[in-house]
Amino acid sequence: MAQEVRGVIAPGKDAPVRVETIVVPDPGPGEAVVRVQACGVCHTDLHYKQGGITDDFPFLLGHEAAGVVESVGEGVTEVAPGDFVVLNWRAVCGQCRACLRGRPWYCFDTHNAKQKMTLTDGTELSPALGIGAFAEKTLVAAGQCTKVDPAVSPAVAGLLGCGVMAGIGAAINTGGVGRGDSVAVIGCGGVGDAAIAGSNLAGAAKIIAVDIDGRKLDRARALGATHTVNSKDTDPVEAIRELTGGFGADVVIEAVGRPETYRQAFYARDLAGTVVLVGVPTPEMKLELPLLDVFGRGGALKSSWYGDCLPSRDFPMLIDLHLQGRLPLDAFVTETVQLDEVEKAFERMHGGDVLRSVVVL
Ligand code: APR
Ligand code: ZN
Ligand code: ZN
């Protein structure tokens, strides 16, 4: 039996979001219905609402979520009713060239639920990132559910579904940060702060946080930054070099997504160092670099997509580390809010005080 529950809908370009009754079908083959317990408010949800991602309104927003599997469809073996799970954007196929080569994070054939959730008048909803979890219940592909230790708070667990995983993964998976490394992180929002926490977890000796907002730097320090640079009044490239004995950092993580900060990252790395781009640029952004500077420095210029994560490997591991007191994931939850407060949470995003507002249900 399809069920009616409450969900947060973005009805049209730039229109305020509102809570409406949505219809969640029974799970079909390979699908699961999840009773959502918590879902973080991410910039990507705001971009959906603004029409910056696609025009497929109405959207069912929310994608950084954790909850309990309520029911599963035919052939589902990954999870069972009662399992506590974190949702991920895409279930990997296990069959394509990327999956078979052991790099499922580049899977060509990721999938979401086939059936559609709808409004009560039958209008089909587009779930944000194939999830749609600002709702009491949501329908996903079973492979989008990753079982984790239920001892963790759902508000904390859900954040691994997107921005926090992107940052931790940029450091650990893409950047390959290891014990004794020097790391610089440019941009200390949720993603940059997670890269700092990830670098700390990986044993980096020096973690240099760079931001133009002093308040961000205080928080970065609390998450493990050993040095901070306010790039509003200091040249960050000079400062990073000075803090690393004149060499530059082994790994520089760009978590803003702008040409000027990418340029800073490029020049702030050590010879043969690694630059990781995790900030998302807009389509018109371009960067010109002397090719000789690329040639002359060696190393690696990488981008990190969803932290190059493998949910089945990374989600349970990071939650276990958190439960052991070794990864302060709770620091990313600034406030908890109700379903009908998402619009207000979007407004607070611009203030700079909120790392993550998390809707709890
Ligand atoms: N130099 C340094 N820091 C900057 C600069 C700059 N020129 N411009 C902005 N910042 C800082 C902001 O002060 C803020 O602390 O970058 C941070 C960006 O943080 P958020 O807006 O909270 O964004 P976040 O969620 O961390 O995502 C960062 O990664 O996944 C992508 O789409 C996401 O592009 C975005 C980036
Ligand atoms: Zn695949
Ligand atoms: Zn997100």
UniProtKB/TrEMBL annotation:
Cofactor names: Zn(2+)
GO molecular function list: mycothiol-dependent formaldehyde dehydrogenase activity; S-(hydroxymethyl)glutathione dehydrogenase [NAD(P)+] activity; zinc ion binding
Domain Enoyl reductase (ER) residue range list: 12-361
Alphabetical keyword list: Metal-binding, NAD, Oxidoreductase, Zinc
GO biological process assignments: formaldehyde catabolic process
GO cellular component, one term: cytosol
Keyword Zinc: yes
E.C. designation(s): 1.1.1.306
InterPro entries, A to Z: ADH-like_C, ADH-like_N, ADH_Zn_CS, ER, GroES-like_sf, MycoS_dep_FDH, NAD(P)-bd_dom_sf
Matching SMART domains: PKS_ER (SM00829)
Class of this enzyme: oxidoreductase
A Pfam entry, by short name: ADH_zinc_N
Record flagged with keyword Oxidoreductase: yes
Family assignment from sequence similarity: Belongs to the zinc-containing alcohol dehydrogenase family.
Protein's recorded name: S-(Hydroxymethyl)mycothiol dehydrogenase
Species of provenance: Streptomyces broussonetiae
